[in-house]
Amino acid sequence: MAQPRVVTIHYTLTNDQGEELDSSRVEGREPLSYLEGAQNIINGLESALNEKAAGDQLKVSVAPADGYGEVNEELIQPVPRNAFEGVDTIEPGMQFQAQTPGGPQIVRVVEVSEETVTIDANHPLAGQTLHFDVEVVEVREASEEEQEHGHVH
Ligand code: ZN
């Protein structure tokens, strides 16, 4: 395998409807750096950036399978409202951290009724085709320490 690189990119992410979901190009944000081969970013984006050099610009569409996966219906389920003890107002769109057998997990409220709150533990971008507009800002060799740690320093 080639020497892993640290790649720094500016990106804008839009969905199928053309709505901007995320961007590194807004004020106060830094470009994103990731270590190749360390699953720092989604597969579909990383593979499109293989072999790219500083200054390269590209548009990449990533299907759910190479992004945040398909929506798993089993992760959408009603829980009793009294599970939210101490929370006065519960509204769709709110996020909570839930304890699960797999560790802490962010869940989103999708529906609220008198008795139950329906929560969704899928990644917010699951099931979506993601459209990235990317510019490679910088590319350098990863240090040994970065490779050991699996992230950028
Ligand atoms: Zn480290």
Write the layout of secondary structure elements.
Layout: E1 5-14, E2 20-23, E3 32-35, H1 43-49, E4 57-62, E5 76-80, E6 95-100, E7 103-112, E8 116-120, E9 130-141, H2 144-149
Bound molecules: zinc ion.
The site of zinc ion has 3 residues, from loops.
Domain PPIase FKBP-type: 4-83
Protein name: Peptidyl-prolyl cis-trans isomerase
Catalytic activity: [protein]-peptidylproline (omega=180) = [protein]-peptidylproline (omega=0)
Structure description:
With 153 residues, the chain is mainly beta. The protein folds into two domains: 5-68 and 125-149, Chitinase A, domain 3 (Roll), CATH 3.10.50; 73-120, Beta Barrel (Thrombin, subunit H). Helices cover 8% and strands 41% of the residues. It is built from two helices and nine strands. It has helices at residues 43-49, 144-149; strands spanning 5-14, 20-23, 32-35, 57-62, 76-80, 95-100, 103-112, 116-120, 130-141. The strands form two sheets. Strands 1, 2, 3, 4 and 9 form a five-stranded antiparallel sheet that branches. The protein has a four-stranded antiparallel sheet with strand order 5-8-7-6, with no helix packed on it. The longest helix has 7 residues, at 43-49. It is elongated, with a radius of gyration of 19 Å. Zinc ion binds next to loops. It comes from Marinobacter mobilis. One of its GO terms (molecular function) is peptidyl-prolyl cis-trans isomerase activity. It is found in: Cytoplasm.
